[in-house]
Amino acid sequence: NESYKSEFIELKKWLKDRKFEDANLVPACFPGTGRGLRSRTSLQEGQMIISLPESCLLTTDTVIQSSLGPYIQKWKPPPSPILALCTFLVTEKHAGVLSPWKPYLDILPTWYTCPACLEPEVVDLLPKPLKAKAKEQRAHVQEFFASSRAFFSSLQPLFVEAVGSVFSYSAFLWAWCTVNTRAVYLRPRRHECLSAEPDTCALAPFLDLLNHSPHVQVKAAFNKETACYEIRAASRCRRHEEVFICYGPHGNRRLLLEYGFVSPRNPHACVPVSREMLVKYLPSADQQMHKKISILKDHGFIENLTFGWDGPSWRLLTALKLLCLEAEKFTCWKKVLLGEVISDINEKTSLDIAQKICYQFIEETTAVLQKVSHMKEQKVSLINQLTLVETLWTEELRILKASAEIISKLCADPLP
Ligand SMILES: C[S@@+](CC[C@H](N)C(=O)[O-])C[C@H]1O[C@@H](n2cnc3c(N)ncnc32)[C@H](O)[C@@H]1O
C-alpha cells in the first residue's frame, strides 16, 4: 500500500478540490508490474472502475489557458499539440511549489525505460527490427527537441533563468515520455493556434496509475454527458487485487517501444521471421524462387510471419509451403495460399524448414541472453535497462520453445 505516502495524500487532496473522490482504488506496489492501483472491493463486469472529471484532465486546453497561451498563439508555424503538452510539463515541473499541478507532477516517474531513454549499448542488444525502431524513436525525439528550441527561446520572458537551462534535452525527454506512456485518448479537438496534427492526448492524474494487462478488457472513453473520462470493467476483478486496463492487443516488442515494458505470458507476443531468414534454408538452386517471392509479396505474405505460443503462424507455414513447392506443382500456388494441402512432401519440407528456423532462433536467443547476463554483472548501473531487455528475450525464448515443441509434434504426425 502506498496511499499513506505524502505524495499520494497530496494528490488525493488535489483531486478532491477538483471534484474527484475515490474510496475504492488504492495506490500500491506489485511484484512484477510495479506501482499500480488495487481495488478494495471486487469489480463486476460492466462496473465503473474510475470516472475522472474533466477538471482533472491535462489537455491542450489547459496549456492554452495557462501563461504559455499567449506565446503559443504568437508562435509561427503553430506548435504541435504534443509540443504544447511537453512545454507545459517542463514549465510546471520547473515552477515547483508554485505550480498548481505539483501534486500530480510529484507522482510522475522521474525516469523512463522507453527506447529513447536506453543507453546505446542496451539498444544494441534488442532484436534487429526493434533496434531500428528504437534508434528512430531516439532520433525523432532529438530532432523534435532541436526544432523546438527557437520556440522555447520565445518563452524567455516567463523565466528568470536562461530558457536553455529550463528546457534541457533531459527535461524535454522526460516530458515526451510522460505524454507518450501515460496519455489517454480523447476525441480530436482543434485549436487554431496549434498545428493540424491530431490533438488527442490527455493526461489523466490518478487514472494513469493503472497498469496494463493483455488478459483484461475495459471500455474507456470520455463521456460527454457526465463530463468525465470513464473506464468500465469488461471482465471481473477480485477484491484486493491489482486493477488492470488494456493498452491494446500489443505484442511485447510494441509494448517495449511505446511504453518501455514487457508483459510476461503475453498472448499477443510473437517472434517475427525476417525475409532473409525465410529463405535461408531453402534450396538455393530453385529456379522459381524469384517468382515465388514475388507471389508472396503480391499477396501480402512476406510480412507478419511469426512464431507464437501455438506454433508457427498459419501465414508463416503457408509462405514456407509456397516456397517449398516442387517445380512440377508450381501451378498449384493459388491452392497453397488458400490453405489446401498439395502433397505430403510439401507439408514435410515446409515443416522441416520451420523447425530449422525455430532452432536457429533458439540458439541466437540463448546466446543474446548469455551476453545480457554477462553485462548485468559488469554494468550494474544499467541493471534496470538490461533486465528489461532480458525479459523481452526470455519471453521470446519461451515462445520459440513452445513453437519448437508443436513443430516436433506436427513433424511426427503432419496430417492428423
Ligand atoms: C500509465 S502508466 C501506469 C502506472 C505506472 N506503473 C506508474 O507507476 O506510474 C504506464 C507505465 O506503467 C508501466 N506498466 C504498465 N503496465 C505494466 C505491466 N503490466 N508491467 C510492468 N510495467 C507496466 C510502464 O512503465 C508504462 O509505461
Distance between the termini: 52 Å
Bound molecules: S-adenosylmethionine
- Named at the architecture level, the CATH assignment of the largest domain is Alpha-Beta Complex
State the helicity in percent bands.
Answer: 40-55%
Report the CATH superfamily of the largest domain: set domain protein methyltransferase, domain 1
At the fold tier of CATH, the topology name of the largest domain is set domain protein methyltransferase, domain 1
Can you put this structure into words, describing what you see?
This protein has 416 residues and is α+β, with helices and mostly antiparallel strands. The chain is built from 16 helices and twelve strands. It has a four-stranded mixed sheet, with no helix packed on it. A three-stranded antiparallel sheet has the order 3-8-7, with no helix packed on it. β1 and β2 form a beta hairpin. The mean pLDDT is 95. S-adenosylmethionine binds next to β2, α9 and β6.
Please provide a brief summary of the model:
It comes from Jaculus jaculus (Lesser Egyptian jerboa). This is SET domain-containing protein 4. With 416 residues, the protein is an alpha+beta fold.
